[in-house]
Amino acid sequence: MTEFCTPRLVLRHWREEDRDPWAELGADPEVMQHFPKTLTREESDAFVDWAGAALEERGWGLWAVEERETGRFLGFTGLNEPGFEAHFTPAVEIGWRLRRDAWGSGFATEAARGVLTVAFDDLELPELVSFTAVPNERSQAVMRRIGMTRDPAEDFDHPALEQDSPLLRHVLYRLRRP
User: Fold this and answer.
1) Which domains does the chain have, with CATH numbers?
2) How many alpha carbons fall within 13 Å on the CB side of residue 71?
């Protein structure tokens, strides 16, 4: 599945013209405030290459998100297998990252709901997880809006982060297929 639509969005394969706006998004300190650092241009390009290859290989992954009306690139939403070991892995994660001027428009929630349909109806996945650093209230709000629930006993320290990182502690949300 390389492309699907929601009422206002197109979730699609990554294109060459996505590289510049993705690099701008990854270099924005406000967008990246809940990540260890902003991304260099090289890191942004590597992400586009990796995400595109994963979509090609599996048919699902992190789709580029575009506004249907304008064609404006907004970021990504999709599915990924966490690349670290934790009490909840192996698992499939639902995640998103949108440019700052797209925040507050309901785009993340709308895109995530579209991905839920693919995950549960097309891929027949039994469960999805989502996680973020404790201070990331915006993403946690999206998780709740799409029906995910959190058990605080499952919160964890992210193994890829330093022990003194203010982002170390992460919340874990889950959603089982209806």
Assistant:
1) 3-125 (3.40.630.30)
2) 2
